[in-house]
Design brief:
This protein has 403 residues and is of the alpha+beta class. It has 3 domains: 1-105, 2-Layer Sandwich (Beta Polymerase, domain 2), CATH 3.30.460; 109-195, Hydrophobic Seed Protein; 196-394, Hypothetical protein af1432 (Orthogonal Bundle), CATH 1.10.3210. Helices cover 51% and strands 7% of the residues. The protein is built from 19 helices and 9 strands. The chain has helices spanning 8-15, 31-36, 70-79, 102-107, 122-133, 143-154, 163-174, 179-188, 192-195, 197-200, 217-231, 235-243, 262-276, 281-298, 305-315, 321-336, 348-360, 364-370, 377-394, and strands at residues 2-6, 23-27, 40-42, 48-50, 57-59, 89-90, 96-97, 110-111, 140-141. The strands form 2 sheets. The protein has a 7-stranded mixed β-sheet with strand order 3-4-5-2-1-6-7. A two-stranded parallel ribbon has the order 8-9. The longest helix has 18 residues, at 281-298. The protein is elongated and about 85 Å long. The termini are far apart. The model has no long low-confidence stretch (mean pLDDT 94).
């Protein structure tokens, strides 16, 4: 039995990056041999065995028929991986096994496909995620890989993607260091129109230049995503920022550059996207609320006290202040995600916090003790909260609102 270090651990070691996870390829042993040694099997189609002490993953060569020669077994397994930079191994003597010149591609900062890349279209999203992860190191997708993916798209290969796997890659990208590059890479390869067509069609859609000097809605969306990443590491906030204007892609061209009613259309599309990709409810709910209410947040001081209260209730902010903070971060990102507005203050956030504070200061328990007819209590609490918000507004300084 021999063990070979494979995949990302080899790649990151050669890049001089810290290695957080190590995966191993095993030769000279059977699945039963590993089980007898105390390894725990996980997975069915491609079983992996967890080490009894380290919990690191050990796998047997997966592709049949396997060559009799051990070196050939290793190289066969490596050539069936996704990218050349992930198709390397280090043998027990510390020697590098590199059948596809992955080390050369690391040195040239190239993300290049393996001969078996097209076997699984989810690898397109993995590639985009690597493009985002290593963007600051100057990595780019090889031209021939871009051409291959474009052909896969033309051949409708992405129709077979499983929604849960797509969301797994999307969520990991949103949680990563450069989500914008992930979506740019998909678009460069013509794959974004298959993964998130609602997002892809935003590019080329104009907005009023007075509010959006960048004009293009797709560019604005990526700028908003950048700002959300600067403001928060929360993938829910980033997801909401990404989809906040998604309804502008459905505005009839004859009505450009205005997008009246895009908020409700955006909220409807958010729901459809989340249903299609099996996205968790907590992502869906925040994104829908941001899509429907971000414009209201920008002009919050202009809204009536009753409208402000309805938004707070819709957000669940009276009971979940953390949801209000997520909402405000996404709205601030929208305001700052415009050319020349990146460093502008966003006092609307403090206004909304003050609104929530005024509403929650109403003593519902005291009102309950003062009334005998409990059926009237909800209306009484609402009136008191509206009154408290109105009083807060009277003392709030005026400021120029964003759009």
């Amino acid at each position: 039995m021999k063990t070979y270090l494979v995949g990302g651990a080899v790649r990151d070691r050669l890049l001089g990056l810290p290695v957080h996870e190590r995966d191993w390829l095993v030769t000279g042993a059977s699945a039963q041999d590993l089980l007898d040694l105390g390894y725990r099997q996980v997975g069915r189609e491609f079983p992996v065995f967890l080490h009894p002490e380290t919990s690191e993953e050990y796998a047997l060569p997966r592709y049949n028929p396997l060559p009799a020669d051990e070196q050939a077994q290793i190289e066969t397994d490596l050539t069936h991986r996704d990218l050349t930079i992930n198709a390397m191994a280090i043998d027990p003597d510390g020697e590098l096994i590199d059948p596809l010149s992955g080390q050369r591609d690391l040195e040239q900062r190239l993300l290049r496909h393996t001969p078996s890349f097209s076997e699984d279209p989810i690898r397109i999203l993995r590639l985009a995620r690597f493009a985002a992860r290593y963007a600051d190191r100057g990595f780019r997708i090889a031209d021939e890989t871009v051409a291959l993916i474009q052909q896969m798209v033309a051949d409708d290969r992405l129709k077979s993607l499983i929604p849960e796997r797509v969301w797994s890659e999307l969520s990991r990208a949103l949680d990563g260091p450069n989500p914008r590059r992930f979506f740019e890479a998909l678009r460069d390869c013509h794959a974004l129109k298959c993964i998130l067509p609602e997002l892809d069609r935003l590019f080329g859609v104009p907005q009023p230049e007075v509010h959006h000097p960048e004009i293009d809605t797709g560019l604005h969306t990526l700028m908003v995503l950048d700002q959300a990443c600067l403001l928060s590491s929360d993938p829910e906030v980033r997801f909401a920022a990404l989809l906040h204007d998604i309804g502008k892609g459905t505005t009839p061209p004859e009505k450009w550059p205005r997008h009246i009613g895009h908020e409700k259309r955006s909220a409807k599309l958010v729901k459809a996207i989340c249903q299609r990709l099996r996205i968790p409810n907590r992502f869906r709910d925040l994104a829908r609320l941001v899509a429907e209410n971000h414009t209201n947040c920008h002009k919050a001081p202009e809204l009536k006290p009753g409208t402000l209260l309805k938004i707070l209730i819709a957000l669940g902010a009276l009971k979940r202040p953390e949801r209000l903070e997520q909402f405000l971060l996404a709205c601030k990102a929208d305001s700052a995600g415009r050319e020349g507005f990146e460093h502008q203050p966003y006092p609307q956030a403090d206004f909304f916090r003050a609104t929530c504070k005024a509403a929650t200061a109403v003593d519902a328990a005291s009102l309950a003790r003062q009334t005998e007819d409990k059926s009237k209590l909800p209306a009484m609490i609402t009136r008191q909260r509206v009154r408290a918000i109105a009083e807060m507004k009277l003392n709030w300084p005026d400021f120029q609102t964003g759009k």
